[in-house]
Amino acid sequence: MHIVVCVKQVPDTKIIKINPKTNTLDRRSAPAILNPYDAHAVQEAVKITKSIGKGTISVLSMGPPQAVAVIKKSIEIGADRGFLISDRAFAGADTLATSYALSKALERISKDMPVDLIICGKHAIDGDTGQVGPGIARRLDIPPVTNVIEVSELNESEKSILIKRKITDGYELIKAQVPCLLTVEKEINSIEYSPMPNMIKAARYEPVIWSVNDLEEVDRTQLGLKGSPTIVGKMFTPPKPEGGKRLEGNADEQVKQLMELLNDKKELFVSR
Amino acid sequence: MMDENRGVWVFIEQNDGKIEGVSLELLGAGRKLADKLDVPLSGVLLGYEIMSLSQEVIAYGADQVYVIDHEVMKDYRTESYMKAVINLAEKYKPEIFLYGATSNGKDLASAVATDLSTGLTADTTMLDVEVDKRLLEASRPAFGGNIMATILCKKHRPQMATVRPKVMKALEPDHDRQGEVIEEAIALSEDDMRTKVIKIVKDVTKKVNLADAHVVVAGGKGMGDAQNFQLIHELADAIGATVGGTRDVVEAGWLPHEQQVGQTGETITPKVYFAIGISGAIQHVVGMKNSEFIIAINKDPDAPIFDVATYGIVGDALEIVPKLIKELKEARERGGEMSYV
Predict the structure, then answer these.
(1) A262 contact residues in B (CB cutoff 8 A)
(2) Cβ pair B99, A120 in contact under 8 A
């Protein structure tokens, strides 16, 4: 059983600040972290290999050299080994170019050890797109199952997996053939404390770093900025709706005015 | 080659023979784009025994509906839906293709974009088109603050986007509207499928249905801590409202995720929205700005929430909300005078 988890280093969007003068992100203001959904993806891989008593967990990331930190973090959670693809040729990739680069790295990884399952987080918190996982699945021609909240059964002889997939008002129970690709929601598991040996291993671990030359049969026109059909046309502050009125006075007076307003608007509260 | 591509398409998502609201909203938004570009608007309707829905797609603004009615398409699966959509797109070559930013819509659009080697903009909240260049301008909130990014796909067709539910407006349906239904066949069999939907379980016990709530009382991290956040529940109880919150509040564990309002939570359009201790980051605002009557309470007079609020109260929520609860309770006890349920 070989599981590859795709992880991304993201700025902690809870902390990141906007420069109000230029309306640009002040990336230095935010620490880089392992995308929280990807942490759950690694944890789920650990859970699966524990439940069947064997397996190898590889993590794969694309990013600048400092992204080795999220691979080390994944080792801490319980991954066995990690790969980082890092090259200027990958820079500026949108989701289409990212899924291409990652799929090429996955092909290389699976040459040495066939991949049974790929797990990704539902989306990265810096882009919120959720497009890379299904894109990778398509490129490798394996089925994707997105928004997974439970992996209930892995049948090795049948080469199948039972999955609960979250839908708007409930869930679907899906049986998928492996290899397949899952994207996971946070509720799939809770992140456990890392055991001390994992932490020691992570501190010492040096991931494999590949440049574009280490990947095979790569069409460079599909990489990075060149391979990205989407571009950011402009950034703008959304048009402000007409500024609302302010209620004056102290708290008692404000509440009194509000009560009058609510009373005037009673019809809004009646069911449609 | 790009010049061959003509027409605006909307993927019509249906579940159990019922069209999702976002698809109807997209027909409204797509109609405007199609009119500007002077091209037809088409719906793409997939499923099993769903022919009857095609008239509804036309009533909501489509000129044409492409229908694939096949047993394999009964439940949504990326594999089957993707193949069907790619076949249609390759055959008829639309220039713009919109999908609802639902689980299935995002999943399908990502796979289709990969195969068609084209751009896909996620979670769009504003759509426009530059007519001369026939360029879709898909705008979405960029992370971290009060800023929108307009994403363009200049050299590839179709230009694709997923669009958040409830940010666009559906047209009033016109059931006399005439349109063309184009039925397409697809060579797919169940044996080709590598995924099977074994069962679909609807969660009928789900207590909180924020999306359909009529009155919402939402709190942000300005409430300070989990204990203070109880005031939000109390206020909601006093007026029969549903409780919502910001991403911060959900991440702090004060509220479950299904009660989050905003870009990564629910987009809602209630009649009345209370924003309490909420600063109004764009991710939150896109989720609630279409509410009809918005009351904001916040200490910071410069908080952006006041820009979208119908009425703003600059003040300490911990002082104001208890007074408001007291007044509302008294009003209710006086009998029927203010019954907000």
Answers:
(1) 338, 340
(2) no
